């Protein structure tokens, strides 16, 4: 009988080349978010369940089917976070973040959803996330979109990725559009899918992004948001598109791109690709000016986006965009009596910012050859001469790395 513990289905152990791709995504995100002056925040892995049920919506699949919720010993319902935005909104309301408005924050880490595992989708997965809180201006939307486009370019995966962009209008525009959609789809209710029939009265916008062929037959002729946009909403969207044009960010108008929850306003967007199969969204987001109200707070404009690290990692790996780091220094200890000196040198090199591997075990006669096989830019061998440890710098040309190693060797005595 096999008693070895098994991994939970839908989770993953990340190692080797996969871990390198994952780390490359996170490191690039951290570098880019600093360029845009987004503050790093760390959020709790679990929250009170109501944080998510009130923000994501009681009737959504995420809340009704996919959340990992449990009662703690005090009888309070807690939930492992299925996304970042709700927790960030809660912190804005409870931690005094309002005093920093407009506030730009970014984070990354694990999220949890109980769903059918598939390519690039796991029950424990990871996202990067960027939000601008307390900014009503469309330029906040532009900055987030430019930042996202910049990130994809820095990751080397922007080819074949398209920014799809839409507006949901302001409150009045959205309500007028919603009423027209209800009226339109009621006339075809009997021919819609079961899910869309259920959504018709409470969430008709979701029918527009249905993947069911029965619904797609009617979506093309459904009322468009542009017919109902107020002058203010038109101006807002016009400023967003003008900003993207000025920044050189290409986009496509996607009139069926929607967000089903009522607190979403104005800009909605997704960066999509055909390289991930059916799950083609690489990064997505939008403006959610009504979210804070749904959590019991004051009216607070906000906009943000999130992207799955696993999906980005797959694209990075497929594109061969993960840089391979050559080892800088290899140390070969050819005489055990010189080991203490070699260890001192190794510490000195690392404190100078140089990466180092040491070969100090196994047959002493074979250590040099093992060190050579590491393929380092600079190789240093250690031995004994007249009872004293010595270091020999082995390099065929003078480089920045070899000069740095030589300087450390000169500063450290045996």
Spatial extent as radius of gyration: 28 Å
Contiguous uncertain segments of 5+ residues: none
Number of H/I helices:
14
Question: CATH superfamily membership of the largest domain, which one?
Answer: Bira Bifunctional Protein, Domain 2
Here the CATH topology of the largest domain equals: BirA Bifunctional Protein, domain 2
Measured by DSSP, the beta-strand proportion falls in 15-25%
Spatial order of the strands forming the largest sheet: 1-5-6-11-10-9-7-8
Q: Quick one: how many beta strands? A: 15
Cα-to-Cα separation, first versus last residue? 56 Å
Major beta sheet summary: 8 strands, mixed
What can you see in these coordinates?
The structure is a single chain. The strands form three sheets. An eight-stranded mixed sheet has the order 1-5-6-11-10-9-7-8. Strands 13-12-14-15 form a four-stranded mixed sheet, with helices on both faces. The chain has a three-stranded antiparallel sheet with strand order 2-4-3. Helix 1 runs antiparallel to helix 5, helix 1 (16-35) crosses helix 11 and helix 5 packs parallel to helix 9. It starts with 15 loop residues before the first helix and ends with a helix. The protein has two domains: 16-170 and 230-318, BirA Bifunctional Protein, domain 2; 329-411, Rossmann fold (3-Layer(aba) Sandwich). It is an alpha/beta fold and 414 residues long. The longest helix is centred in the first third of the chain and has 20 residues, at 16-35. The mean pLDDT is 92. It has helices at 16-35, 49-56, 61-66, 85-94, 138-154, 171-186, 194-199, 213-219, 231-247, 291-294, 309-318, 339-351, 367-373, 400-411, and strands at 39-40, 46-48, 69-71, 77-80, 103-112, 124-133, 161-167, 252-253, 265-273, 281-287, 302-308, 329-333, 356-359, 378-385, 388-394. It contains 14 helices and 15 strands. A hairpin with a 7-residue loop joins strand 9 and strand 10. Helices cover 37% and strands 21% of the residues.
């Amino acid at each position: 009988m096999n008693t070895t513990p098994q991994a939970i289905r839908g989770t993953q152990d990340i190692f080797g080349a996969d871990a390198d791709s994952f780390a490359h995504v996170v490191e690039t995100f951290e570098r880019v978010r600093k360029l845009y002056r987004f503050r790093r925040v760390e959020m709790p892995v679990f929250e009170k369940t109501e944080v998510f049920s009130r923000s994501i919506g009681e009737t959504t699949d995420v809340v009704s089917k996919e959340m990992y919720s449990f009662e703690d010993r005090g009888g309070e319902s807690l939930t492992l976070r299925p996304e970042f935005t709700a927790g960030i909104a809660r912190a804005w309301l409870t931690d005094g973040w309002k005093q920093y408005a407009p506030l730009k924050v970014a984070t990354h880490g694990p999220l949890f959803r109980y769903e059918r595992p598939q390519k690039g989708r796991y029950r424990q997965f990871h996202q990067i996330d960027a939000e601008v809180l307390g900014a009503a201006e469309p330029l906040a939307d532009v900055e987030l979109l430019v930042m996202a486009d910049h990130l994809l370019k820095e990751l080397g995966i922007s080819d074949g990725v398209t920014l799809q962009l839409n507006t949901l209008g302001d409150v009045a525009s959205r309500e007028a559009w919603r009423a027209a959609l209800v009226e339109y789809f009621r006339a075809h209710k009997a021919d819609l899918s079961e899910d869309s029939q259920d959504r018709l009265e409470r969430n008709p916008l979701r029918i527009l992004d249905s993947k069911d062929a029965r619904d797609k037959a009617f979506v093309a002729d459904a009322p468009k948001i542009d017919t109902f946009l107020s002058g203010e909403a038109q101006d807002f969207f016009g400023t967003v598109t003008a900003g993207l044009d000025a920044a050189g960010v290409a986009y496509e108008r996607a009139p069926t791109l929607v967000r089903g929850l009522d607190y979403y306003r104005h800009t909605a967007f997704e960066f999509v690709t055909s390289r991930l199969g059916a799950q083609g969204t690489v990064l997505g987001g939008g403006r959610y000016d009504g979210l804070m109200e749904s959590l019991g707070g004051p009216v607070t404009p906000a906009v943000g986006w999130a992207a799955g690290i696993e999906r980005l990692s797959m694209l990075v790996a497929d594109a061969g965009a993960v840089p391979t780091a050559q080892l800088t220094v290899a140390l070969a200890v050819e005489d055990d009596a010189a080991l203490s000196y070699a260890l001192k040198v190794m510490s000195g090199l690392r404190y100078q910012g140089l990466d180092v591997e040491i070969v100090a075990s196994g047959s002493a006669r074979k250590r040099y050859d093992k060190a050579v096989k590491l393929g380092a830019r600079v190789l240093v061998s250690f031995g004994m001469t007249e009872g004293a440890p010595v270091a020999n710098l082995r390099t065929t040309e003078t480089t920045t790395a070899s000069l740095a190693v030589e300087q450390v060797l000169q500063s450290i005595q045996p």
